[in-house]
Amino acid sequence: MLVSIEWLYNNLKDVKVVEIDYNPQISYYEGHIPGAVLINWRDFLSDNSRDFASPEKLSKVLGNAGINNDDLIVLYSDMNNRYAFYAYWILKAYGHSNLAILNGGIYKWLRENYPIDNDAVVVRRSEYKASKPDWSSRILVWELLSRLKEIVLIDSRSKEEYDGLTTAPPEHKCEQTQMSGHIPGAKNVPWTTLLNDDETMKSRDELGRIFSWLNREDRIVVYCRTGARASVVWYALKEVLGFRLVRLYDGSWVEYGNMVGVPVEKSISDHS
């Protein structure tokens, strides 16, 4: 599920490489992996509500990218590869199981001096058929609030966000919430602690030590600001370490930190 830079380079003709970008004009057109098609992160979202796309819309998005249902999709992204993990979580829910993530993403690809292209890839449209999503790995705020005492919460944001020093990370500093802090009982495991300096994911043994405080029977919920960073933690727990009961709260702090009447904890005093 995590493929190396070398493996991808040797298998470029046999897979569909997809770059998932938050800022496509900044990332993809400045240089991308040869043959990689671009999918804007927002294409996974619904046009009519704050939710994910319908199967019909997702089918069109993937079909326009020339992807077939049986293709092996290798994902990478900008923003420290976080949206590759988020896309993995979404696509798996919609029934595409033949998925992999480029370990280290575009950063490691460039760092090791592999070739890049600057022009958009011309693709032949395919007829993709997305399934009705299986959201068993997702939790909505209503259920979350009713189960706060039953679940193990992991906040994967930075310590500054978790403590309540800021309501948004530096890369999204204009997108503040009304409240700072964290969901009561949540333990802070910043997503970056799961990655090496070259942005590859740490080994199974290292991840096991990071999460040694968890029990296999725990019902785990991970969250961050919008779900992207939390998807890295979800992947490590579910796909690498094999925890069965892991769900992602994609509403995350953008939703929770703007809700009226919900409980909030802070690790600092609020003098406002």
UniProtKB/TrEMBL annotation:
This is Sulfurtransferase. Residues 11-118, 147-265 form the Rhodanese domain. InterPro entries: Rhodanese-like_dom (IPR001763), Thiosulfate_sulfurtransferase (IPR051126), Thiosulphate_STrfase_CS (IPR001307). Keywords: Repeat, Transferase. SMART domains: RHOD (SM00450). The keyword Disulfide bond does not apply. One of its GO terms (molecular function) is thiosulfate-cyanide sulfurtransferase activity. PANTHER family: THIOSULFATE SULFURTRANSFERASE. The keyword Transferase applies.
